[in-house]
Amino acid sequence: MAQFNSIDDMDLDGKVVLTRVDVNVPVENGRVTDATRIEKIVPTVKDIQAAGGIPVLLAHFDRPKGKRVEGMSLKQIVPALEEALGQPVVFAEDCIGGPAKRAVAALEKGQVALMENTRFHEGEETNDATFAASMAALGSVYINDAFSAAHRAHASTEGLARLLPAGAGRLMEAELKALDAALGDPQRPVMAVVGGAKVSTKLELLTNLIEKVDHLVIGGGMANTFLVAQGVEVGKSLAERDMADTARAIIEKAEAGGCKIHLPVDIVVAREFKAGAASETLPVGECPADAMILDAGPETVEALRQAMTACRTLIWNGPLGAFEIEPFDAATNAAAACAAEMTEQGSLISVAGGGDTVAALNKAGAAEKFTFISTAGGAFLEWMEGKELPGVAALEASKH
Fold first, then answer.
1. Is 294 a member of any domain?
2. Whether 31 and 164 share a structural domain
3. Which of 57, 79, 82, 188 has a 20 to 30 Å separation from 249 between CA atoms?
4. Does the residue 1 lie in any domain?
5. Domain match, 130 and 64 both
């Protein structure tokens, strides 16, 4: 388990607390269209205030590439932030220098400030020491609540943690605890569901997981590549035929390590990829030459359900089929419903993450019943790949 300070371990009374948050939300015509990420930082801000600290929020927005781009100003999220926090928010026109210093100097207990986009400075993404020091000069404590940016060694995610007493915010803390329960020190047996289009993008993930889980379910286009590797015809299905050797190597390594790989035993095929397209369910080896596999069939789902029922921990990344359109969402929906039901009954710890995954589980109506849903796409994937996350490593270093 990662060792780090939490808000409760730190003396915040009367101190300016530089708080790295992720408020990189969708905006249209200057208005926030989905405030989920903003709402998730509220407990951290409120708890800092309750401890007598003055939260000064640092965040990036979009990709301005080190230049000031008005359309990427954090100013446009202030109304949504004020609504979520239920109080006015002071906005500073920069995150360093005069405007930042003046805004922070005028703050009193109970107030909160948001600094301008850290990525308006080149030094943010290069983790420039001078830029990090200029930000550090604004406060006396650092709290990182942006797990979603923890895989990047930027000035506001890594550099600051090495310059000030540092700890994790509530969202970061919850994320790290959930991830430790899923892969660090999990209740066994552990099942991982990995879906998606390409094996090549999830190679490191698969290689890491077969050493850590008891059951590995492979779905989506990736499953087709594994089927090809085993000599199964997949017609016009999406498959990386040049990855067949790699897929076979993964299967062999899994067998040697006692990890059971689950592939489709029956398939749902269609001649075209569109909603309501004529489809049929066939045994896995009988995909017609002019058809494509778009989902796993009911026998596969039943086998998956039985395996899942024997498990205590589930990690999920990626759908089992082309979940965006009916009827090719059936396998994903059924497996998600099973995981949700087991979690509700208290027999399964379920952790899921990744953009498509969250969308698929929301569509299935199962997301709110999972133990933990990570909204941190890239960081969640890198953590599943077994990589060290610079933002987390810096917090651990601060603890010692």
1. yes
2. yes
3. 188
4. no
5. yes
Active site residue 46: no
The per-residue DSSP string of 289-319 comes to TT-EEEEE-HHHHHHHHHHHHT-SEEEEES-
Residues 132, 140 contacting (CB under 8 angstroms): no
Give yes or no: 258 in active site. Answer: no
Residues 68, 70, 73, CA angle at the centre, nearest 5°? 85
CB under 8 A, 24+ apart: contacts of 341-348: 341/369, 342/308, 342/309, 343/369, 343/370, 343/371, 344/369, 347/312, 348/308, 348/311, 348/312, 348/313, 348/314
Using a 10 angstrom Cβ sphere, with 0-12 exposed, 13-18 middle and 19 or more buried, the burial of residue 275 is exposed
CA dist 295 and 269 (Å) reads: 7
Query: The whole model's pTM is what?
Result: 0.88
CA trace torsion 23, 24, 26, 28 (10° rounding): 90
Residue 198 catalytic?
yes
Q: pLDDT digits over 242-296, tens only?
A: 999 999 999 999 999 999 999 999 999 999 999 889 999 999 999 999 999 999 9
Q: Tokens 């909204």 label which residue? A: 375
Q: Is 378 a catalytic residue?
A: yes
pLDDT digits (tens, 9 = 90+) for 292-319: 999 999 999 999 999 999 999 999 999 9
| Per-residue tokens: 155 | 């000035």
d(CA 368, CA 365): 7
287 and 345 fall within a common domain = yes
DSSP letter for 325, please: S
Q: Are 360 and 379 in contact (CB under 8 A)?
A: no
Q: Is the peptide bond before 165 cis (omega within 30 degrees of 0)?
A: no
How far apart, in whole angstroms, are the C-alpha atoms of residue 17 and residue 52? 10
The catalytic residue among 198, 253, 363, 399 is: 198
Task: Give CA–CA dist 399/376, Å, rounded.
Answer: 23
Domain containing 269 equals 186-369
Considering the domain architecture, whether residues 24 and 124 belong to the same structural domain is answered as yes
Measured CA to CA in angstroms, residue 346 lies from 189, 312, 333, 339, 341 at distances of: 15, 9, 20, 11, 9
Catalytic: which of 30, 98, 355, 365?
355
Say whether both 237 and 315 belong to one domain: yes
